[in-house]
Amino acid sequence: MDPKHIVIFAFQLSIICTVFGYGLHSSRNDLLYLWRRPGLLVKSLLAVFLIMPIIAVVMEEVFEFRRTTELALVALALSPLPPLLPTKTDKAGGEHSFMVALLVTLSLTAIIAIPLSGLILGWMFHREFSVSLGKITQIVLMMIVAPLLIGFVVRRRWPKLARWLIPVVGRIANILLPLAVVALLAAAWRGIWSAFGDGTIFAITFFVVIGLAVGHWLGRPERGHSVVLALASGCRHPAIALTIASANFPDLNFVGTVLLYVLISAIVGVPYVMWQRRAECPPSPPPATRPP
């Protein structure tokens, strides 16, 4: 195994550990949270699977970005399951139960919804978006569904083991993730550098900001719902995006653009997370002064 594959494996392992850790302290009520709120369920599916793909294609039609940027945005818009959603929602004060339920729902729905979204976009904009159902199913099951459900089962059957595993798994994820991201960016810096220019940074930033705004607005009036749906709408899974882009245009190299998206979405998400943290914990008023 070459160094690049080791780095990618470490990145994937950190995501699996993060999702597994959330399964360790999730209950049956968490898994059913979204299905007991049909209005929120519909808005969530519309934001992730329909509105954001349409926005990506409209951006492609309106602006004149370079070809790899336009196609990468469409592929990213068709790629739900933000891999770092649990970490970000924790920091921003999102609703834990909604995050878990949304992660499971998007995972199971993605297997059908991604090809369906591709067909709808192809019909609306008179172009074809083919999707490898087998590869997407493999990514979804291995990186999201399986670790989350295994963690849930461990918590139900062996609660003492789950309590012991939670901090251990958290430490592994917290160590592996930053190291893997830095190593991955360093290994692919040439591809990332080639993605600069021609409006690529603007296109990615605009897409992420619009995603955050759409999700935040549709998640109202509950702030905890807005936080989760905003991050789910603006942040997409790079592995699924590369799978879709490579299947449709094998002669183009999308690695640099997709990795640049990962970097920019992380940076753009920071002000939003900080804003929501301040909204959750507003500054305390100054102490009242006693009259003389």
From TrEMBL:
Keywords: Membrane, Transmembrane, Transmembrane helix
One GO cellular component term: membrane
Segments crossing the lipid bilayer: 6-24, 40-59, 99-124, 136-154, 175-193, 199-219, 226-248, 254-275
Pfam families, per database record: SBF (PF01758)
Localization (cell): Membrane
Bilayer topology annotation: Multi-pass membrane protein
InterPro entries to which the protein is assigned, alphabetical: BilAc:Na_symport/Acr3, Bilac:Na_transpt, Na+/solute_symporter_sf
Protein name: Membrane transporter protein
Organism, as annotated: Noviluteimonas gilva
Top-level taxonomy: Bacteria, Pseudomonadati, Pseudomonadota, Gammaproteobacteria, Lysobacterales
